[in-house]
Amino acid sequence: MDIHAHLLHGGARSLPADALEKLRRQAVAASESGLSHTYVARMYGISRKTVGNWVRDYQRRGEAALVPQRRGRRPGERLALDDSQQLAVLRTMSARLPDEAGLPHLLWTRRAVVELIHRDLGTALSPATVDQYFVRWGVRTKHLPPILPGDLPAPVPGVERIAVAWLCPRPLPEAEPLQVLLAVTGRGVLFFMAGERPFEPERLAEFRKRLGVQVSRSIRPFVRAWPDEHHELRPLLDS
């Protein structure tokens, strides 16, 4: 029985696991590309409610939401980018800033990485999917220390307070550790700069300057995480 016959007789739940996963991926990808849930439902012969549930689950859980519960999978087995492609992206980000790589951005963002992957690898991903790769690579704020009341600089009219962290993740087992300067605005917009060597004072100053231009307003960074071995450089971004 083909996929359309399964849908006609028993709905999406009656599909074999492989076919159901394929259908979920196609429906979510179509929705992420901008098509309405109604159009996607009609295109694949499923209900609009099912499309909405799949998309919301994917936005909440990422790749795990697309795979039906069955045998365990090896990490990365069903990722859109294999490890070699991820390494290529990481090497570009650590070697150059977006404008140096020919992209119209001053710092790396979700959108800038989406554009890099599409241009260099021919793969169209949504910002939500790229966010899943950020988690995989350790470019994230989830495990940073909580912000205590005394940590926030005093508010100043017209000045945006931005949390900053210097992280040292190892994005993949076969990759070298990265040095990452990461900034997050109060609205959750993420900017970062990456490199293979510790940042020099000039690079920290450049990050701060680019960050101010990118957000188009005066900024007041405050540090949430910083390597102890470079504590003397912290004041360059903690003021």
TrEMBL record:
Residue stretches in coiled coil: none
Superkingdom of source: Bacteria
SUPFAM superfamilies given in the database record: Homeodomain-like (SSF46689)
Domain Winged helix-turn helix: start-end pairs: 105-140
A Pfam short name: HTH_33
InterPro entries named among the record's database cross-references: Homeodomain-like_sf (IPR009057), Winged_HTH_dom (IPR025959)
Name assigned to this protein: Transposase
